[in-house]
Amino acid sequence: MYSEGISPQLANETAALVQSLLRVCCEQWEDTQWSEDRVEDALQAARQRFACRLQAALRMERIVPDAEVSFQDGTFHLQSEEFGISKKEAMTLQRLLDKIAVCAGQKLPETLIHESQCCILYDAMAMLFQENVWDGRRKQNLWRFVYEELDAQTHSKLAFWESFAAFGGHPTHVMFKSKLDISTGQPLGLREVLDYSPEFERSVPLRLLAAQCEVMIAFPSAQEWQDFWWTHHPQAMEVLAEEVGKAHMNEYVMLWVHPLNVENLRKTLPRHFEEKSLRILQQQGFGQARPTLSFRTLDVPDGYYVKLPVPLQLTSWPRYVSPVEIQESAVLSKLLPKLDLTSNLVMLPETWTCHLSFEDTQGVATYPQARYCSMLVRDSPLPLVRDGHRLVPLAATFSTTPAGCMLWEEIWATAGIGCSEILNWFARYVQVVAECQIIPFLRYGLIFEAHQQNALVELSQNGWLTRLFYREIGGGIEWDRQRLDAFPDLDFSSQLYARHDMFIPLQTCHSNLRHTLLESHLLPLADKCSSHFSVATEQLHDIIRLELSATIRSAQPAADDLWKVEQFEEYAGLLRASLLEEACCKRKALLRMRLSNTKDPIFIQHTNSLALVSHKECEDALGCINTDLNIRAVGVRQSLVLYLLFMVAAVAGVWYFVTTAPPLPQAQCSEIVTPMDVIRGKLVREPQKSILDLWNCLREYKKDNWWHTTAGIWGIYVIFKIFGPFGAGTSMVLSVLIGALYDEWAEPNTHYSFLAHLLGVSGEVCGGAGGWIMSYCIGREILLHFAAEKMATLKKEMDKFQGSMFRYMLFLRVSPLFPNWFVNYATAMIGMPFSYFLVASTLAIQPAACMSIAMGSMLRDVGESGLDLVKLAKRGGMMATTMALLSLPLIPADDWAKGLARAKKFLGMKVPEKAE
């Protein structure tokens, strides 16, 4: 059964673990066929996953930047050239952790080996359940299964996603499954893990605790706390009446207690139980709750969530619920509705809270004791979910489904979101998330810990994000004190306990915001979009930059803000610099914190993948380099240099063409505009004289040099379109000149040349395409740096065309909102597919091309045969009719409907309200 290379010690240990897992599986799931091989395979897979997570953490936190960690042939292996560690050496888990602690310059914490062992063991058991027992196993599309096949109410569906997300655990923490008993430092038993962990979809039988009011502090008040229990749990109040008598009921408040905490309470607070100020009551038939992702927060069927302390260390921290957290929940739940936050954000209140009185509040218990006698009630999000929408924990969307893909991929597939829609979908998603987290911070200095466990996304049936839900007010909100001082009427600091740590430095605010907004959310989502839809990661990063910049720029101070506008704008500028401009930024180092055995955050510097700087600039600025990150290699300065080099090359090409072409006839070409005249704008200021002079010259030159004339005009047309800002306004003049110069393939009645039309349209489209390609390659940094506001406006307009990028491209081409050259450059930035750009440009240019070519043909006739007003009027009418017919298909459907409604209203006909 075991590899020959495995050590006897590890072989014995593995055999014992396999037997323990097998025994529990056979007892708990009798209908499933279990074998030692199946259990051992799960255990080996869990060790391999632990090795992969450990390797990622060592590299990301630069403890061992070149670490290679693996589990092969029954042993762990660590290799690092930087630390001189050979991969040939087989290691036990103990030795592996010792080596890592030495590399980090720390002494290995005593409990870390237990944490690692139980993490592997619990992960193996979760794998066995997921692959052999779980309802969602072997489903090809889990998203469709839940909403089309699963026979459950909305409540149960949300609980299903909580359990599903728990299989993967924390996205980056190495000890993502560890559960240690606080008092003994030993792993929690396998049966307790099964009974109380969210992965296994079991109900937890909560216990009732009756506490005398004099030893408890309840929010909003003891009486209101009693009313809450009478409303939700009259059975519990009847049990209390039987225990203490109806006459004494009002002397007590009720709390739920987690089963794992019952004996801990008795041991921790023996005096309170002896004096009967605390009583564990006996209840039957009620008190069941489902654990959620956070383990200590449970879903009570009576329409709320309850957060309870447990005497366990999960991942890295003891999971108590402190009085500070309890008080913060109550205070902030009253404050938050007064703040002017974005409508896309839903904060779940935690109004009902209570904790044991401690020495700071005239109680007899110590603060550490009070942390395990508390309860927090959180509102359920389900009544707030919009009809037809689906609420999912963010952690679930990043979890791997039985089909081997991320849940996001199944959401996109079910909603029909494909390659043509994903950039628009992603832009809208980023916009909502950015507003939810950036607006509260800029207005009030408010940071909430919206990582994957604490955030829920509300999706419409077509898969678009509509709102972000946030849970975890107490202990999950931090504040910039300087910003809060601008709102003296909101100051709540005097209501907090002296032990609170809610106010943090501005730089830490920026780091925490970046962690929850970008590193835990948007950047991983961008990576998944990139891999699934084969979209360049940098294109998605550009969307993040644009949306964050637009959100920061459009943010407005709150009405009662005492800060001046200049102070607010400076504050916003500091945030923008931290998120998008600084070459390096801080990231929380969870493994370093665990090795240091501290709860205080430890940050490391790493490259900012959203900063428009070169890799070398980041390395020089802060000495931090991470080759695994995708850093743009071309900055703003380099882009400007490349843009100018391309322009010089184009000018050199034109000069070479002109100097090698046959000479112009002097008699007809003595007064034509020169290239410098074009640059100075003479072609635009004096179009009539310029065109006539050029026409006379080139008409004569064209007789003997047709190919040189055609290639020269068309090439110059394309170059002016590519370098649009330097040739703005010349395309119209050149189109008229082409119409005047060419009479080949002419229509006999109007003398309209189809060859001239082909030259004009192809020059316009090819020049625009050249500008699009050049912007995609080197011009994006320039636009973000010099035209960020215009880019934000462009994205805002795009949101009005949700789901139809092609229609938006047509709109840009026919509307006067943006210069033509800016559209050519900017659409490459906002994710416009090149095919849409090309086809929409070809269609949209037809009316303007017809007008300019027809004007040129009329000028040619005037120059050749003199002014004929009747003929001119006839051709002008035909030209106007043709333009109108070509323009009709370009009118958006919404505008058609509105125009038709106005016409009906003018004629006195009935108009539907929606049409108006």
UniProtKB/TrEMBL annotation:
Residues 731-857 form the VTT domain. Residues 159-398 form the Aerobactin siderophore biosynthesis IucA/IucC N-terminal domain. One of its GO terms (biological process) is siderophore biosynthetic process. Keywords: Membrane, Transmembrane, Transmembrane helix. InterPro entries: Aerobactin_biosyn_IucA/IucC_N (IPR007310), IucA/IucC-like_C (IPR022770), LucA/IucC-like (IPR037455), VTT_dom (IPR032816). Residues 425-598 form the Aerobactin siderophore biosynthesis IucA/IucC-like C-terminal domain. The chain crosses the membrane at residues 640-658, 722-742, 754-774. GO terms for molecular function: acid-amino acid ligase activity. Pfam families: FhuF (PF06276), IucA_IucC (PF04183), VTT_dom (PF09335). It comes from the Eukaryota. This is Stas protein. It comes from Symbiodinium pilosum. The gene is stas.
